[in-house]
Amino acid sequence: MAALDKPAAPRSGANTVIGSSIVIDGEISGDEDLIIEGTVKGKIALRQSLYVENSGVIEADIETANVEVSGQVTGNIAATDKVELKADCKVVGDIRAPRILIADGAAFKGNVDMEMGVRAPSPRGK
Amino acid sequence: MATANGSTVIGESILINGNLQGDEDLTVRGRVEGTVTLTRTLVVEPTGVVKAEVQVKNCIIAGVVIGNVTASESVEITKEGRMVGDISAPRVIIVDGASFRGRVDMGEVDVSAAERGERPAARALARPATRPALAARPARTLAKEEASAEAASPAAPRPPAPPPSFGMGALKRKVVVKRK
Fold first, then answer.
1. B22 within a domain of the structure (yes/no)
2. Does B89 lie in the same domain as B146?
3. Closest CB to A26 among B1, B17, B24
């Protein structure tokens, strides 16, 4: 993937797009990138990247490799690689991922866990 | 916002299980199971599989559809298309090579007018694009068999229509009663 920086740039590499007027109530799973501009309720399980655009609204638990949120997410996010909360996003839920980025302007409420099950003693711990 | 409005694509490896509704065109290359409700066009591409109750304006099937399709305008099964289920739409196009099992309901079909050889002019004008492909082959064979130009000409535009539509109408009534 070439451009992962600007939310305004259309991600032409991904071939699954949920458009802004679409409402999905159920489960989405797959092995490719997914761009959400509409509404998804239920569950999302991917092995690639999930992009929640400005108009996107998610009320679902998310399991993917990468998540990039510019819209709204209500639900827990578990990523094997990275979660990025962009400016103007609204996220309520717990995030679990080895890398978590929260940009200035992002609204977030929930727990953050970067340990991903590795219970190594952290500097602040014991 | 980022991409042009009215373009939703479900990619090949994606599976959606549940209800899907919207006001834009939807292209399915992966799998969708559950219900699909759109105010615009559903396109099922050759790699696409839809196992759902479908309610749309237009439906173009080049992949697999299992379930009932209700369209307010048209349903077209292309030569790669495979479908099992009932179709309810004013215009139904099934091309050569398509595979389909199920009932077709095109709404009110004026059988008595067709039997008399009277075709409502408005209807013939309103559906110019749909008929030629459908009627091309049957019209030729019918003309050959009957060899009577006078009898063939009024029936030629849609020769298979009167008897099957009559039979399907009867069947539909029966099923409706059964469901209640």
1. yes
2. no
3. B17
